[in-house]
């Protein structure tokens, strides 16, 4: 499985938004990875310059959600 680039992860996150069971299934089916790995990569993408340049609003939401979860 090839690692997805920040823009692809952020586009997927922007389409799905909140964490639901259906989203977890889509992560496994569409992205071919476990949800835990998706969220690791998504957090990294939201902090990357490439990600911020691509979709600053989604990056901000992901960073805010990560900060409140910690």
**Which runs of at least 5 residues are low in confidence (pLDDT < 50)?**
none
Rounded mean pLDDT score: 92
Major pleated sheet: none
Topology, number of strands: 0
Structural class: mainly alpha
Report, as a whole number of angstroms, the end-to-end distance: 29 Å
Roughly what percent helix? Answer: over 70%
Report the total helices: 5
Give me the Rg, rounded. Answer: 11 Å
Give, in order, the helices and strands.
Answer: HHHHH
What proportion of the residues form beta strands (DSSP E)?
Answer: under 5%
Question: What is the approximate shape?
Answer: globular
What key attributes describe this structure?
mainly alpha; 5 helices; 70 residues; 77% helix
Characterization of the model:
The structure is a single chain. By secondary structure, this protein is mainly alpha-helical. The protein is 77% helix and 0% strand. It has five helices and no strands. The protein has helices at residues 6-16, 21-30, 35-47, 49-54, 56-69. The longest helix has 14 residues, at 56-69. The radius of gyration is 11 Å and the shape is globular.
């Amino acid at each position: 499985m090839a690692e997805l680039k920040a823009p692809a992860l952020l586009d997927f996150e922007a389409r799905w938004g909140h964490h639901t069971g259906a989203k977890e299934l889509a992560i496994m089916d569409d992205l071919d990875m476990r949800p835990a790995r998706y969220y690791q990569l998504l957090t990294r993408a939201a902090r990357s310059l490439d990600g911020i340049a691509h979709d600053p609003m989604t990056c901000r939401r992901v960073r805010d959600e990560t900060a409140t979860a910690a």
